[in-house]
Design brief:
Elements: E1 5-10, E2 15-22, E3 27-34, H1 44-66, E4 75-81, H2 85-102, E5 106-110, H3 111-123, E6 128-133, E7 138-144, E8 147-153, H4 159-169, H5 176-184, E9 197-198, E10 201-202, H6 205-217, H7 222-248, E11 252-256, H8 263-276, E12 279-282, H9 285-288, H10 292-304
Parallel strand pairs: 1-4, 4-5, 6-11, 11-12
Antiparallel strand pairs: 1-2, 2-3, 6-7, 7-8, 9-10
The protein binds adenosine monophosphate and magnesium ion.
Length: about 325
C-alpha cells in the first residue's frame, strides 16, 4: 500500500478537532476548538451549533498547517460514537459530505479506541493496560483476543464530569479539573467522602453529591474539599487499575484522556506501575484531550485492514461501547 493521508474529525462533546495524519503515523496537523458554555454544563445542541459554525475555520487551519489542499486527502475518518448525539451528527454530516464530494473512502471510528491508539502511537507503548479518564468516560481496558476488553468502568458519571460539575458549583474556573488540582495542593485535611468500587466498577455520582453537600454546609475549607475529592476519586481509579494490571500482567500501563493531565493521578499510576513491574506511559496533553489526530490515526489503522464505512452504515451511535469494536490490526 503506498503512503496516504487521513483527515480525522472529532466532535463527540465540547471539543471540535480536525487532524491530518499520514499512513506512517506522522501527525501533520491537530487543530482543536473548544465550546465553552456561557453557563451550566455542555448543552448538546449548543455544542453542535458551535461545531457546525466553526468546522470550516478549524479545517482551514489544519489544511494551512500542512500546506495541503482538501484534494490531497485520501481518506476521511470521523468519531461515530460514543458521545452526544447532536455533536456526533454534526461531525458525521461533514465527514459524509467531504467523502462523497471527493469520492474518497469514509471510516467511522470509535472514540474510545481513538484514545488508546493515539496513546500507543505517541508514547510507543505496545500492549498497555489503559486507564482512560475524561469528561465523558472512565474506563480500565486492555487488548485481548481481537478486542479492547473493559475490565472496569464507571457505573454512572465520569470522573471528569464529577470534577467539572463540582468546580462549577463551587464557583471555580472552567475547566474544573485543573482548577481543583491547583486548589488541592493547598489542602491537607482528608474529609470522609463516599469511596465506591463495586467489583471492578466505580461510581462517582455519590461522591459528587457528598462533596457538594459538604461544600454547602460551610464546614470545610474549599482547598480541603478539593484535596479530598481528588484523593477519594483517584484512589478508586487506582484500585481498579491496579487489580486489572495485576490480573492481566500487562507489561505497560498507559494513562490517557483529559484527566490524565493531573499530576496526583500520574503519581498514583507511576506507583502502581512500579509495584506491578510495568512501565508507565502518559499521553502528551494535546493528544490526551479529545482531538482529530486520534480519529485520523485510528481511521488509518482500520483502513489498512480493509475497513471502510459505507454511507448507509455511517449513522452515529451515541452509546457505542469500546468492547464492541473488532481490532484486527492487533491480531
Ligand atoms: P476530555 O474529555 O478528554 O477532552 O478531557 C476533558 C476533561 O479533563 C475535563 O473534565 C477536565 O476538567 C479534565 N482535566 C483537564 N486537565 C485536568 C487536570 N489537570 N486534572 C484533572 N482533570 C483535568
Ligand atoms: Mg472534552
Amino acid at each position: 500500500m503506498s503512503p496516504f493521508l487521513c483527515l480525522g474529525i472529532e466532535s463527540t462533546a465540547d471539543n471540535l478537532g480536525i487532524g491530518i495524519v499520514s499512513s506512517e503515523g506522522i501527525v501533520l496537523a491537530n487543530e482543536v476548538k473548544v465550546h465553552i458554555p456561557e453557563e451550566g454544563g455542555i448543552h448538546p445542541r449548543e455544542a453542535a451549533r458551535h461545531h457546525s459554525e466553526n468546522i470550516g475555520e478549524v479545517m482551514n487551519r489544519a489544511l494551512n498547517k500542512t500546506k495541503l489542499g482538501i484534494d490531497d486527502i485520501d481518506i476521511i475518518a470521523f468519531s461515530q460514537g460514543p458521545g452526544l448525539g447532536p455533536c456526533l451528527r454534526t461531525g458525521a454530516t461533514a465527514a459524509r459530505a467531504i467523502s462523497s464530494y471527493l469520492k474518497k473512502p469514509l471510516i467511522g471510528v470509535n472514540h474510545c479506541v481513538g484514545h488508546i491508539e493515539i496513546g500507543r502511537l505517541t508514547t510507543g507503548a505496545k500492549d498497555p493496560l489503559t486507564l482512560y479518564v475524561s469528561g465523558g468516560n472512565s474506563i480500565v481496558s486492555g487488548y485481548e483476543s481481537g478486542k479492547y476488553r473493559v475490565f472496569g468502568e464507571t457505573l454512572d458519571i465520569a470522573i471528569g464530569n464529577c470534577l467539572d460539575t463540582f468546580a462549577r458549583a463551587a464557583g471555580l474556573e472552567y475547566p474544573g479539573g485543573p482548577a481543583i488540582e491547583k486548589l488541592a495542593l493547598k489542602g491537607s485535611k482528608l474529609i470522609p467522602l463516599p469511596y465506591v468500587v463495586k467489583g471492578m466498577d466505580m461510581s462517582f455520582s455519590g461522591l459528587l453529591t457528598a462533596v457538594y453537600n459538604e461544600f454547602k454546609s460551610g464546614k470545610y475549607e474549599l482547598a480541603d474539599l478539593c484535596y479530598s475529592l481528588q484523593e477519594t476519586g483517584y484512589s478508586a481509579l487506582g484500585e481498579v487499575t491496579e487489580r486489572a494490571l495485576a490480573h492481566t500482567k500487562k507489561p505497560e500501563l498507559l494513562l490517557t484522556g483529559g484527566v490524565g493531565a493531573n499530576k496526583r493521578l500520574r503519581d498514583i499510576i507511576k506507583c502502581i506501575a512500579e509495584e506491578q513491574g510495568a512501565q508507565p506511559f502518559y499521553v502528551p496533553i494535546n493528544f490526551a484531550t479529545d482531538n482529530g489526530a486520534m480519529i485520523a490515526w485510528t481511521g488509518i489503522l482500520a483502513y489498512k485492514e480493509g475497513i471502510t464505512t459505507p454511507i448507509e452504515y455511517s449513522y452515529v451511535n451515541p452509546k457505542w461501547r469500546l468492547d464492541e469494536v473488532n481490532i484486527p490490526w492487533r491480531i
